[in-house]
Amino acid sequence: MAKKEKLALFTFIDAFGYELLKREPFLDDLLPYKSPINTIFGYSSTCDPTIITGLMPREHDHFSFFAYNPEKSPFALCRFFKYLPKSITRRGRVRRLMSRFIKRLYGYTGYFQIYNMPFDKLPMFEYTEKRDLYQKGGINSGARTIFDDLRDQNIPFYLSEWWKSEEHNLATLTEDLKKGEIEFAYLYMAHMDAILHEHGPEAKEGSEKIKWYDQQMRKLLEVAHEQYETVNLYVFSDHGMTATPEDYQLIPQIEALGLKFGEDYAAVYDSTMARFWFLKPGAEAAIRGVLEKETNGKILSKEKMHEWGCDFKTNRYGDLFFLVNPGLLLCPSFLGETHLAGMHGYDPNDKDSVASFATNVDLDTPPKRLDDLFGLMKKEIES
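Given the sequence above, the corresponding structure tokens read:
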């Protein structure tokens, strides 16, 4: 049987930043073109929609998972969980089981996790990734994704099941490659993010994982070359990972002001930032007074939010954004009470935040920022 002409294989390795790519051997004989690619401010919940739409956060309307909206919060029942002992509800396994229950209850199809959100405050918030990003209608703003284009043009393609294991996704893609029918593949590899959170970006566990990726990709490419004359391989990440040797406590400083949460102000304390909504006069001045004196972070100006594509049309994601310095972990936060050795979500221009890009294709113009990846994928399906 004659080989199919071409396969475009896009491989997304979560948290495989450029600093790691420079340091570790990875398909060096197969990927001669390696370069940094700027990330987007926020977390994967911001970066992933940018990659598949080519739009900035203000346009696709994805940022952090929780937004202050008590009128439309689906979590009214969760307030009763606050009566459970904290020795139970703070456990990660218990939180994951609760998340699965709530996800099924409300019919969410996107990534869903309540993390360490306090149960007495959860009914004040809505969840922002209710739908699977990769399926039709998954983007909050209604924007199209590269997968909408593939479906509408009837181009046979492979899309990883992001909620399944890397081994599963490698196996299913291998089977599709053996058939030689697909023309485009999007392989999702997420586990290194968890490894680097737990052990940090300098640990041997990260190096071992990269060796494993190298081995698995070589096996995959062997199968692909049996069925295709040309395999255009693109490997990229959404962000890097920063070592976090020190915890930083912001919540006690805000609570010491004596303001009432839900009446005077509301806040979400993510791992690297705090977002505030001001509900009564005087709350903003009091909170700004604390934050402006801080040397461990900075209030983000409107100009900076515009530069980073996060100047949203409404205050859905916050009235004020406070970003901590790289290397500090906001802990405890609404995402966790346990120290992590690595984190992302800092200033996107910081070297450890920079994502990576590698390919075997000599491109005239390599992508410079995550939103450029969409144009590259679009070019592949149109050529």
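The two ends are 23 Å apart (CA to CA). Try to locate this feature in the token string yourself.
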